[in-house]
Amino acid sequence: MKLSSFIPASELHYFTLLLVTGLYTPGRGEITSLDAGNIDDILNNAGVALVNFYADWCRFSQMLHPIFEEASNIVREEYPDPTQVVFARVDCDQHSDIAQRYRISKYPTLKLFRNGMMMKREYRGQRSVTAIADFIHQQRVDPIKEMENLEETSTLDRSKRTIIGYFEQKDSDNYRTYEKVANILRDDCVFLAAFGEVSRPERFSGDNIIYKPIGENSPDMVYMGSLINFDLSYAWAQDKCVPLVREITFENGEELTEEGIPFLILFHQTDDTESLENFQHEVARQLVSEKGSINFLHADCDKFRHPLLHIQKTPSDCPIIAIDSFRHMYVFPEFSDLAVPGKLRQFVLDLHSGKLHREFHHGPDPTDSTPGQETGEVASDPPESSFQKLAPSETRYTILRDRDEL
User: Fold this and answer.
1) In which residue ranges of the chain is pLDDT below 70?
2) Which of 162, 364, 198, 387 is nearest to 295 (CA)?
3) Residue 292: predicted pLDDT
4) Residue 282's closest CA among 335, 236, 331?
5) Residue 20: per-residue pLDDT
6) Where are the strands (E) in 178-262, listed by range?
7) At 143, is the secondary structure helix, strand, or coil?
8) How far from 351 is each of 244, 309, 324, 347, 375, CA to CA, in Å?
9) In what helix (H) or strand (E) does residue 42 lie, and over which residues does it extend?
């Protein structure tokens, strides 16, 4: 692959000029090399850190090095304090323990960290100096909007999850903890804050934080834990900001696929909120214990017509529930069975046990057959995974086939 296919034309000329004039030399950027001895200290003391996980033999890693270094030079001019922004790198061949710790499955991977905590959303934007520098600038924007008066709460966009903090003063441990939580969850919730006289009517028992769920008539939820305890504050806010059932889109499909766990998906029309609410209710009621072993998602039937065709369905058949195991797709028999106690949970357990796969190839398990019924094999071919195609592109990354090789 030519350099011109990797770097935008507007910046290719710039890099060519640097190379010809000798102004660019590898290693000029202030990139911190991380190893087992310094990684925790450096990341924990950085407000924002962008880490390049690479391998020297990977051509995509080689192509990214000068871009990453030049982006670091630009950002360093604006943020010279290393406690604000750090650009760092990990040689995954030399430090396979670190690569394994952060589940690196492709080279190069750009992971974002805040105060030592790795963000779920890694950098997947354009690999150019401008794009990477702009990304860091966006990460430095304060995610908390200060309210000038409490009347602003009456005009909130109730289609978004919102957390509001009421503090006596900005220079306080309570607010500093709130800032850390907001920085980490900035992509998942809207964060607001009021101070002093503005916040006084809401501080009848001291500083406090409330959550406003989606929906005009949804009641507020008050945080009852310690305001200076980051772990408690973050756990509470994460539970409110990150829904159990997330929407899959073409924009987040790659990152969801890369989490590496199967999808349980409700395909529904965008205006069919009743089916979505029923699905969310049953997932919360039957499958909370399975969180971490399967992703609970919902998808727009019209946008995701292709996966529906894989299972011989169309948008007119929605709502439909299906599992994509990244090998095959399996359809939940009837949407109306959703409310049958334990039915949805058994569907997921049958995936984990291998029963869904066996029955697609060989017919019902003998234990599930009607007495006296013959149980000869029934040839079947389950539809291939459709969402696996949303995984990272091999024209952009060196994909590691077996994570154990790290």
Assistant:
1) 1-29, 360-382, 401-406
2) 387
3) 85
4) 335
5) 39
6) 190-195, 208-212, 221-222, 245-247
7) coil
8) 19, 21, 10, 7, 21
9) helix 39-44
